[in-house]
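Support request, please re-run this one:
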Amino acid sequence: MAVDKILITGGLGFIGLEVAKLLVVERRRVILFDNLSPQIHGAVPYLSSSPLLRSPDVEVVRGDVCRPQDWEAPLSDVKYVIHLAAETGTAQSMYEISRYTETNVGGTAILLNYLANHKHNVAKIILASSRSVYGEGAYACARCGLVYPPMRSEKMLCNKQWDPECPTCKGAIAATATPESAITSPASIYAATKLAQEDLVRIASKALGISAVIFRFQNVYGEGQSLKNPYTGILSIFSNQFRNDVTVNLYEDGQESRDFIHVSDVARAVFLAITRDGADGSTLNVGSGKATTVERIALLLKERFGSAIQPVISGQYRVGDIRHGYADATAIKKQLDFVSEISLEQGLERFVAWVKQQPTEPDRLESVTQELISRGLYGGACHN
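Re-run finished. Output below.
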């Protein structure tokens, strides 16, 4: 019996490889479509010697989602498309606007345009979106109930007013789990492109009679995460700093929080969406449903690396950063029976053990910081 082929764009990224590994174990055939971006894979891309890439069930196609002709071969005989390919640096997106829009929005449009104008066998698209589409997300106000505050202004940040306030009564609010029904309020070009991707896939898939599942990933981490890319992934950034004995600066007061989910859990969610129809037509959060402060992440990594470097709360900030954000994971549990299984402590043990086996990468954060300062996107004091 023929086995359906599955195309993974961005397939050589750490999420793509984890998804592919699970699919191959489950006896699926996979095509990994990737442009081997130097920012992620280095100036001279190195393809892992992993047995996965030697599997007869895995095919690697180098191509660019922005070139229509590159889609023809990988789309010729696949039933499912897992669309992970994207530029992902939130801060970088604010000054590389055309590149982020071309790749994330344009690349998705080219995919859908091909499906609209050529014969194909694609029955379902899984889109990797982001929790960033929510902006600050959901908060609880004692007076007003569930509220969605706007992004913090630079005036608030430079005055060290870290926590947002109720948009109605201006009172104190507390972060709460953000449901999929929350107001979307992108605060970066990256986030805007992810929301645009969602709309394109939602509208086009319905018109074309193709099932679609849109996943809003929270902060994905784990083994295989790029240690070369200083624009995304605080675990990778902190790990490089601890290994290089470089001071780990925590923005704001270190109490901003995120929902960290291990890449193996994310891969399982994608697999469930491929093999079940309970989420077809839905937009779902993929997260642990738990908030963890940046300071706690830094201290957990410090302990596991055995580092003498003490994280420093810098009071600096990046314009456009959210304060808190964690997922309401109720819907994905109901529709796909998915619950994250890897605890943060377990995930960090696995991640750090993997990092220690990799060549030490230089800390590239300082050059990124200088780039943000030069463009007025990074601050530590009020500007008069």
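The longest helix spans residues 97-117. The chain has one domain: 5-379.
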